[in-house]
Amino acid sequence: MRIRFSVTYCRLCQLKPQCTWDGRRLITLRLREEHEILEAACEHEAQPAFSREYSQRTGIAGTVLAGVGVLHLRRSRYLGPAKTHLQHVPAAAAINLIRIAI
Fold first, then answer.
1. How would you write the pLDDT of the chain (102 residues) with one tens digit per residue?
2. Which one of 28, 46, 53, 58 is at 20 to 30 Å from 77 when CA atoms are compared?
């Protein structure tokens, strides 16, 4: 459920200086189960083990971003897994060369 406040009510609100939202406020209410799952996920993210695990993921995400941005790997030029693999092998080599050059 989403609750959207009117701009006129937001302008008159006494707590407006403390609000993090510039325009009109939107609040999303979730079911208790969804809320508890999100709370557990936030607690998991606050642990040091998660930050070590996530630091590896950031390196992988950077590699994928380079492949998508520079080598246009979002879509394959070819049909079929064999030809797509044939496209990915030189692309992976190119990404390695880019990393060595930088």
1. 888 888 787 778 887 777 766 667 788 899 999 999 999 999 999 988 888 888 877 777 877 887 888 778 778 888 899 998 988 898 889 888 888 887
2. 58
- Residues contacting residue 71 through CB under 8 Å, at least 6 positions apart: 91, 94, 95
DSSP H or E run through 28: strand 26-28
Q: pTM of the predicted model, to two decimals?
A: 0.43
Q: Which residues of 31-47 are buried (b: 16+ CB within 10 A; e: fewer)?
A: eeeeeeeeeeeeeeeee
Q: What angle do CA 16, 21, 25 make, to 5 degrees?
A: 85
